[in-house]
Amino acid sequence: MSAPYIKFADKKDPEFYKELRKRVNTYFKEKNISKYSNLNMVLKSAFMLSLYFIPFVLMMTGVVHTTWLSIGMWGLMGFGISGIGLSIMHDANHGSYSKNNFVNKMMGYTLAFAGGYPTNWIIQHNVLHHTFTNIEHFDEDIEKKGVMRFTPNQPHKKMFKYQLFYAPILYSILTIYWVFSKDFEQIVRYNRMELLEGQQLKLKNALVKIFSLKIIYVLTFIVLPISLTELHWSVPVLGFLLMHAIAGLILALIFQSAHVIEETSFYEADENNSVEENWAILQMHTTANFSNGSRLFSWYVGGLNYQIEHHLFPTICHVHYRHISKIVKATAEEYDVPYNHHKTFLGALKSHFILLNRLGQGKEEKKLATAKA
Predict the structure, then answer these.
(1) CB 334 within 8 A of CB 310
(2) What is the pLDDT of residues 184-228, one digit of tens each?
(3) Over the stretch 263-273, which tens digit does the pLDDT of each residue have?
(4) By the number of CB atoms within 10 A of the CB, which of 12, 113, 149, 154 ranks highest?
């Protein structure tokens, strides 16, 4: 199995992205600001890390020692995991946190606090998802191994008529699945796909790193709480599961609301692995923004409600997305390119679950099966 490859029609409508990059670069030059993080980003990083570690320290030192307060602390840690993933790790592993590669790598490894392996995330997200957004058999974010149907190009099963109801349950086990199974499955698959070479990594070395990270994680966040706290062992175990349920649900809903909604398109490559679309235009068809008017919401989710800006400029730190979004939207309108947007997060969620229901029922295939090559 060779590394995945899609041939985009880059000569088709190239003016939009060329002009957009020029305007965005001019913005940073005229403002004389860096495309990387700023003081606000550093302060946010400190807050998210504190939201994760302070509750844990309070429990381990006995300051918090009652059952329900402990459960509450684990719940806060779930929001901490999400905040770290959305606001720190995500930028760092895109290389947009800092111009210093060491800083990016160090901050990218905060994913290990959630039990994940950064290299796998980089391959799935940066290499596959960002390059092949919503392209069947290439974007792993829409490939759910027959458990759910995320696109009209995927075969329908009777069980999918219930996916509207069981989707939140599956979303809630996203990170716990990551901890105990997904990383091992992915590293073997990526080795077969020859994707480890691009990360200058050998399978054996990767497996050693993954096993080491998992052992440290389990000892720290399962064994240690059971050993140090005076509560029944079931309390830290239930707390651990609650933490991951909160984190998994938040992370899944944020990303699904940006790509798997009624307004976005889904593609299939032809027999020559070609898609008759310019890459940047494809991003505009497959990506959507939501709740851009809420500064607090955007702050917590790492600017990923500006998903369009992120997909077009992944190496720009998310603290700048709100500002460059005006440039992107105006340029899209000028070149008659779609700029999908929901005013609220609830509106985006509604669109996501409406689409899930339609796909689950096997309805409106012709309407949804858009932009096939």
Answers:
(1) no
(2) 999 999 999 999 998 999 999 999 999 999 999 999 999 999 999
(3) 999 999 999 99
(4) 149
HSE, side-chain direction, 13 A CA sphere, residue 135: 24
Q: What are the angstrom distances between the C-alpha of 32 and each of 26, 27, 29, 105, 316?
A: 10, 8, 5, 26, 14
Rounded CA-CA distance 324/310 in Å is 10
Helix (H, G, I), strand (E, B), or coil: what is residue 291? coil
Entry field: residues in the chain: 373
Strand partners for 333 = none
**Using CA atoms, how far apart are residues 65 and 82, in angstroms rounded to an integer?**
24
**Pairing outcome for strands 7-8 and 340-342:** unpaired
Question: Which 8-state DSSP code applies to residue 173?
Answer: T
Collapsed DSSP state (helix, strand, coil) of residue 76: helix
Q: What is the pTM of this model?
A: 0.93
**Alpha-carbon span 107 to 89, nearest angstrom:** 6
Q: Tokens 């599956």 map to which residue?
A: 170
CA proximity to 265, closest of 131, 134, 125, 154: 134
Q: Which two tokens stand for residue 369?
A: 């099966």
Question: Under 8 Å CB-to-CB from 272, ≥6 apart: which residues?
Answer: 7
Tokens of 69: 């307060």
Phi/psi-derived region of residue 37, left when phi > 0, alpha when psi is between -120 and 50, beta in every other case: beta
Residue type at 244 in one-letter notation: H
Q: Is 299 exposed, middle or buried (0-12, 13-18, 19+ CB in 10 A)?
A: middle
d(CA 77, CA 55): 7
The CA distance from 140 to 219, in Å, is 30
Nearest C-alpha neighbor of 309 from the set 24, 3, 22:
24
